[in-house]
Amino acid sequence: MHKIFFSLLFAASSAAAQVPAAQRQSLDEAWWTGPMLANSASTLPRGHFLIEPYFYDVRGEATFDRDVKRHKTGRSHSYGSLTYMTYGVTDTFSLSLIPTFGYNEPAQGLSSSGIGMGDLSVHAQYRLSQFRPGHWLPTISLALQQTLPTGQYDRLGERASDGFGSGANSTLLGIYSQTYFWMPNGRILRMRLNLTKTFSDRVHLTDASVYGTDDGFRGTAQPGASFVANAAWEYSVTRQWVLALDAVYRHTHNTRVRGFDARGAATVFDSGPSRSFALAPAVEYNINANVGVLLGVRAIVAGRNTSGHVTPAIAVNIVR
Hints:
56% strand; single chain; mainly beta; 4-stranded antiparallel beta sheet; 12-stranded antiparallel β-barrel; 1 helix; elongated; Outer membrane beta-barrel porin/alpha-amylase; Porin; signal
């Protein structure tokens, strides 16, 4: 998919290569929905709001059975939705509420008993600077996000697929940046670079859980901290059509589970640290300056101690 993206980008640039430099595209002439993964460094004007629901399907190609030490084949599906609901408190400060929902169809075992609520996040963003044409300084914002453990994560019984949450209070600290480049053909290439670090508190576990524990278990899990670097590019092919690409590196530290199983035996196991690199090409279609649709797919293309999956997604961006 990413090869197709670069082919389209090259074709679009070549087709417009004869456009005089004096006719370069203005910022007002470019409409954007945003790439699939990287948050905007901009904040909403005071009193304005944004609603952006995402619908996706995390398709896993294989799972690992920890008990028998072998790989199981088969495709799993984790259907989900995530919605950004953002309000501009001031011109430089925005608040967001981000609810999530899901339904799981594992390759082995029972599917979810129904659509379940995942964890709920509250996101605050403060803008430090604003990009201006002709100046080098990009738009830069600081982000603080608190995720609340509203999704079910333990006491899952026979339906591990009913686990939609982490059980942890998690805090994300981030710095977002966004800038614009004018290509030789006069079209705009918008770039984002976001760096985030997430920390989670200890989770108390009872019975079967999303951490791989079984019925009768009593103990805790300590999720490992994670670091994410997300670079994204959007090329304005026309006012309405945009090509986008995210490149995401993620490193997550070890998660440790400890406690006692149903027989009273001490249990300790570690997930080990993991790394992954993902690409997420997408196409944006902007109906007008306030409404846009995004269609894309995220794919894990490399990693260590991480499962491979592909996630097609669609999103609708509405700003008022």
